[in-house]
Amino acid sequence: MAVLKKKLxxxxxGCSKNKVDxxxxxxxxxxxxxxxxxxxxxxxxxxxxxTCGFIGDAKEESIQAILEAVDRKSRGEVGKVVVFGCLSxxxxxxxxxxxxxxxxxxxxxxxxxxxxxxxxxxDSSKTSSRYLTTPxxxxxLKISEGCDRRCSYCAIPFIRGAHKSVPMEVLxxxxxxxxxxxxxxxxxxxxxxTYYGLDLYRRRALAELLQKLSEVEGIxxxxxxxxxxxxFPEDVLDQMANNPKVCRYMDIPLQHIADKVxxxxxRNVDGAWTRExxxxxxEKVPGVVLxxxxxxxxxxxxxxxxxxxxxxxxxxxxxxxxxxxxxxxxGTYGAENFKDSVSSKxxxxxxxxxxxxxxxxxxxxxQSRVGSEIDVIVDxxxxxxxxxxxxFESPEVDGEILVKYDTSVFGDMDPYLLIGEFIKVKxxxxxxYDLIAEPLDx
Length: 442
Description:
Layout (H helix, E strand, L loop, with lengths): L5 E7 L3 H14 L3 E4 L7 E8 L4 H19 L3 E8 H5 L4 H4 L5 E2 L5 H7 L20 E5 L1 E2 L10 H5 L3 E2 L2 H13 L4 E5 L8 H4 L4 H9 L6 E4 L10 H8 L3 E6 L7 H7 L5 H14 L4 E8 L6 H14 L3 E6 L7 H5 L6 H25 L4 E10 L2 E5 L11 E4 L2 H4 L11 E9 L4 E5 L3
Parallel strand pairs: 1-2, 1-3, 3-4, 4-5, 6-9, 9-10, 10-11, 11-12, 12-13, 16-18
Antiparallel strand pairs: 7-8, 14-15, 14-17, 15-16, 17-18
Helix pairs in contact: 1-5, 9-10, 13-15
């Protein structure tokens, strides 16, 4: 008689780097547990929460998720609540006192203790294994942990520790295992992807890693997130320009352009360097799509500095841009040395003004694509519509390409069989976020 497995459900908050951590832990325990998808509302034996402690809004979201978990526990819907990740790492001494109903707390890198808490023994042979929580055709690949940067606003270095690259052979093995599961797109992530290799190989080795990953059978797209502008390795641009598997897409958080603000942020670049880097990217990789993030309201951002930021965004015309209001975080250099002098009202006004400008830029970019024929990957099929992306859209953060199911093209094919497949489409409409396209013959 088969023994029923206990039910384990995870909730992962924050960035995609946390998602990878959760997937590594699940790979260690999946033989002993039935894994219940996040969001499915059924009773479970264990609820495992991976928290974020980066900025105020993220901390509030994590605390709210923990309170909801212990509330489910009080109603008998959850047997045990286990919390790990950045929030519990950052506030290790406070959280158990604040929410004593949680059964166990662990830090951001305490994988083995979490696995033991779940009643399993860590297995070193599964180090490069993953239990995917993304759709099966794409996966995030975390190439390093921690950060040696000391941006004045950022708490990550003292939460996650110093930068530590994952050996190249381990990443290639992980990519091979992901490809065997059906993954066709790898999204390269880290606190700073362009720093990869300095600790292990005494050189920036991201370009070499990209080449090796592109040789993995089954991998068709590789895209880069979280790159840092200072000392940017230009051989990465050569890979992007010449390697057909490396998407012409770069996520490069710049945070600002005004010299005074960049200096206060400890970004190790100035405005002139930043402008020249963007020029090189567009020159060396024609058609590249750039995603960036900006922070408004940082100490030192007066009216003139914000005006310079707006002018820069108009000039650079980033295809994708997100922005955040400065959040003073205890323990950071900024919190201890600068006065948070920009009011909440002004921060919000600046954020709204910047994002209004970006909406206009994004709309113009999307409209410029109308009439083009492009290859897309099918992410989902919902209400008679294929939800797709091209090499210029990253999942979860960018817009989508919506393609209506057309029997004259697809015939009697089960549309769900196309999820994870590449199809060619023609763009026929656009708004500031999404594109509308029609399928071409397949």
